[in-house]
Every structure is written in C-alpha cells, then in structure tokens.
Amino acid sequence: MLNGMVLIKKEKGLTSHDVVKKVKYILSVKKAGHFGTLDPLAEGLLLVGVGNATKFFDFLVGRNKSYSGIIKFGYSTTTYDSEGEQVGEMKDIDLHKIDIGDLLKDFRGEILQYPPKYSAKKYKGIPLYKYARKDQDVEIKPVKVEIISLETEILDKDLLKFRTITSSGTYLRSLAHDIGRVAGTGAFLQELTREAVGEFDLKDALTLSELELRMEKGEGLQKGLIPIEMLLTEFPRIVVSQNGSETVKNGAMLSLNDILEVSSGDDSINYRIFDDDGNFLALAKKDSVIHRFKPFLVFNNKS
Predict the structure, then answer these.
(1) 267: annotated active-site residue
(2) Which of 18, 39, 201, 287 is catalytic?
(3) pLDDT averaged over the chain?
(4) Among residues 70, 84, 240, 303, which is most buried (max CB within 10 A)?
(5) What residues make up the domain containing 48?
C-alpha cells in the first residue's frame, strides 16, 4: 500500500479535484485527497495525500503558504479573478504615480477578509459559489487571516506583481479585490502560482504528465513523493517493542515497558509511534498525569 504525500505541480485549467482523481488513477490507489484547494485559474504546488497520509489533513492543512502572482487594476470582476465578468466601467490608473507602500499599508499582518462569493467556502453546508450562481445573497462573515509578508513590483501602469506568505485560509483573490477597492479603480487577480506550503516546495513537485511518465517507465517516485514516515517530523518519534506494536494496533494505552526508544520532545503532546522495523503505526497523545501514551490515530498498513 502506497502511503505518503505526492507533490504535484498543478497546471492552469484543472480543478484540485481533477488532480486528485488523476493521481488516484496513475498510482492505482483507492484513497487520495488534496490538502488545500487551488482554483482552476491558479497553478503551482498542490499537496495530495495518498493512503494513510490522507488522515493527516488536520495537521497539514494549516501550514503557511507562499504565492506569487499578478494583480490587474482598472476594474473588478464578479469572481475577483480573470475568469469573472467585468464589474463597472474601466478606470485609468498609473501605478508608477501611486505610493504603493501607502496603498498596501493595511494589507500586512492580521487582517479581516471576506471570502469571494464565488468560492468553496460554505454557508449552512453549501458552497458560496452555488448561492452566487443563483444570485442568492447570503451573509458572508469576515475571517481573520495573516499576511506575513507582501513584496511587490510594478510591471506596467496597471499591473502589479507580488510575492506573499500568508496564513492558511487566505484568499488571494479577495486580497487583489480589496487592494483595488482601496486604490479606487477596482482590481482582480490575473495570475497566481503557489510556491510552497509549509516545508513543501514547488521545485520538488511533478506535473501529472511527469508523474504518469515515471510510473510508465517503472522509475518509481524518488522525486515527488514524501513517504509517510517523513511527515509530521515535528512530533517526537517513539519506537515500540513487538508487544507494544500489538498494544498500539488495538488502540490501548502504551506502557513505558513497551517503549524501546523516544526522541527528544518533553513538551510535546503528540507523538509518532513506530515499530522496530520502522513502520509508522500510529499517532498518540501523552498523558501528562500517568506518563503513558494513548494512540488516537492508528493506521491499517495491510489494506
């Protein structure tokens, strides 16, 4: 069974769901899922968990993300990107004559941001884009996000290139739209590339075509796949005995007598449990009172 994280370089025009479906087909796996949507307009790094790694969503989806892109000024659009319809009349702007620092002063650090109406953000269990397509207005509440860094370069009088690191959940389309609103001319996201998610980098990713070619040639996944044993390395590692392995597989409290090795991490709550052959068995929480470990996510490595 293949377990790990596949780093995919998503191309424009594909949905994140399209990518997951293709990865499942190429790798002949039943379980796969992405860790953070990329819009069809966007390209770049998409993390696709396969096998047991799909269970790591809650631990990996919150990683900070790095992007580069282009904002076009002059008007806004219904979707806040180049795929939407123009809203309002075209307005002239010359970014060379604007104080960009002043324009962007309120778009760094923690900010409140409204998700786009055309987005997968849910209201009462239904994605917002479904309401928008029916011209139904719903109450969209702002969300606190963080723009950790934001660097820009003027490409033309109405084109602003940017690089940014953001917290998870930040909509770059909303960022472009809001900057255009402050500029008084409107703006939308023309291009977007996701460069990194946490410690995972686009330079290590494969396109779907490259992934398919490697598998056809029998070259395997020396590049593009992070084995499950190499994920969540911020959690200390515990190696257990054979008896401890059976205890963990049954989800029972792990006795200190069954532990062969513990890496440093006295302040950690979560731990990774391995058997003495190096197989990743489970995630466990440390009980600070009785100093034992209770598995809360046990893997079935035989399926």
Answers:
(1) no
(2) 39
(3) 91
(4) 240
(5) 4-62+199-227
